[in-house]
Hints:
The chain is built from six helices and nine strands. By secondary structure, it is of the alpha+beta class. The protein has two domains: about 140 residues, endopeptidase domain like (from Nostoc punctiforme) (endopeptidase fold (from Nostoc punctiforme)); about 70 residues, Muramoyl-pentapeptide Carboxypeptidase, domain 1, CATH 1.10.101.10. About 30% of the residues lie in helices and about 20% in strands.
Amino acid sequence: MDIHSKYYITKPYGGYSPCIQGNPKFGLRPFPGSVLPNCVGYAVGRFNELAGEGSCKYLGNRNAAELYDLGISQGLSGGSAPRPGALIVWKTSGAGHCAIVERPVDDNNIITTESGWNYYTEPVVRTVQRRKTGGSWDYPGGTFIGFIYQPEEEDIMKTFEAYKSGEAVKDPEVLRLQILLNGLQGCRLTKDSYYGPATTKQVEKWQADHGIKATGTCDQVTWNSILGKG
């Protein structure tokens, strides 16, 4: 995640984000036009970056607690189970809080990335392990609302099924696969939307590491595994 990406810069400053600039109070806003530090600005940017939209098509400039209903109104799916790339939302006595699920650890733990309006020390984007306790995902002083999932997962799976190992096929949906593999495996795939040899190799690695036949083709079983549903 590059905080200088257009996903984290407001529209008046040439970025994609419809959100407000981050809190200037503590002197941690990286530069004029940055949405950081702020949970909504970060989460909206990261969600759309993972979706590979090339814009902030989904979600918008709302209080964090309102983002779940907004996502549903935009045709996105929601639920109570975590998936990579999903938005997680809590309500609080104030504006609420939100974060992005980078990966599930197990049934009761997830790794998120998030920011916050009151982040008064570096870093302005943090990696956090959140735990499910008493049937709800924890956030101090917050009540879990739900997860908003990445768009068109079923269509993406059908597209991946058609790819053959080693073919250099360019498709915007491949960008999401590359971003997820970079985050989940710590690799450095070029985010070029090509399902070529480098992406094939990382898919094979994922399959081998997760007990799936290593074909290099991102079939439905592999895609489900990557999304944390396998």
